[in-house]
Design goal:
Helix content: 25-40%
CATH architecture of the largest domain: 3-Layer(aba) Sandwich
Oligomer: single chain
Number of strands: 19
Number of domains: 2
Order of helices and strands: HEHEEEHEHEHEEHEEHHEHEEEEEEEE
CATH topology of the largest domain: Rossmann fold
Strand order of the largest sheet: 12-13-14-15-16-17-18-19
CATH class of the largest domain: Alpha Beta
Number of helices: 9
Amino acid sequence: MRVKFFCVSILITAALLGALALNAAAGKVFWYLPHPDDETLGMADSIHQSVLDGNENYLIYFTKGTGSLARFFLTGPDGQSYQLTKEEFGQARMAETLAALAVLGISPEQVVFLDYEDGGVPQKDAEAIMRALAKLNPGSVHRTVHILDRHPDHQALARALAAVAREEGIEIVTEFYHVYVYRSQLPMDQMNKRPILHREIRDLALDEFARWEPEQNRYAIGMSSTPDLFRAVRNSLYEYVDPDIGAVFDQKSTASYLVLTTADAGYRLSVGQRLSVICALELQNSALQFGVDYQLKSNLPMIRLGVGIGYHFGHNKPYGAVSAEITDYIVLVAKHVYKTNTQISVGIKVQLF
């Protein structure tokens, strides 16, 4: 089934974009988006400026964003709740995104919506699509989201574009935009940033995600799902973008954190994308704990779920744990020491390096 869907995706993309090879490649800009609204949150000003510069802009969305939990919490100004099917929700998300793109100067004919699973965009499939467009259009500009965005689809597209750009015979210009930077611990003052040139236009595009008109298939989904991001973007004077593929592709595979909870204080070393090693000291009895944690796949943009096992030296027994990290700061942990007790704790996580 996946092979069939991938072939269909390639055919659709080729049918809509293959004709571009007939024109000069200069001035062509391809934007690869994981979900509807990522373009407005992370790169609205750059899209509008690209339109003003006379470029041919084409946006390829890999999902319709149907995995968002906002689908279950759509409530109008009158307090009435709306229950949409997954398909209806996807159509509504596309509708508000196309409206925002119209503000930025993009027409529906320049937009392609694929339908990969939200939270499960395959990097290899993304690479194949990007590679095909890059070979058809040497010298073109290709832009996507950033590897440091805390969502698997964002990371898959960033890695895919970085990998394709490094292939022999590929001649393209790349840029990688931060979407979730406002929820991260990244040092924003030290990041590559681009001043907003068209703040009024950007804000009008943001407004489209707060529009409540059910008769027009508009349910203010963007503002319902990530209101803090929309507020942060509206107040921002910059877009955060990294043009260097080396900074994206060669990210360190390890990072260390200090984790303080109501139950213990510990040190966490992340190894690779999903595995972490944890050493903690229980606050109540100063007992040492050592374990490993594995991050589960999840389509929730700001919530990371994990499972872990380890050894509690105070009780001299193994333990099992489940955890949830909300944004880059808040940690919830439920830990059970074999035949002893279960602890539920809440705390914060601070990156050391």
